[in-house]
Specification:
By secondary structure, the chain is of the alpha/beta class. It has one domain. It contains 3 helices and 3 strands. It has a 3-stranded parallel β-sheet, with helices on both faces. β2, α3 and β3 form a beta-alpha-beta unit.
Amino acid sequence: MFEAGDSIRGLGIDIEFPLVRIIGYRGWTKHGITKDLAARFTEPILHAYGINYYLIESNDDVERISETFEEAERSRRPVASLLGAEYS
């Protein structure tokens, strides 16, 4: 995700392509702050691009992947599913 910023902007945002991103949320933990910078920057980067996302933390959340596809198609914008490291 970090190296793909220009592609996300050009393909997903500028030409309104309903791009679905399945992102492994490296370093994410539901137990508190992590030292992993990837985890600390993931959500702020998505916010900066205006990309909505769904967090997948357990089997109960798997339907959020379908919601990701539905929202991307409806909005014609990128939408992401973040797979929490403790789940994946």
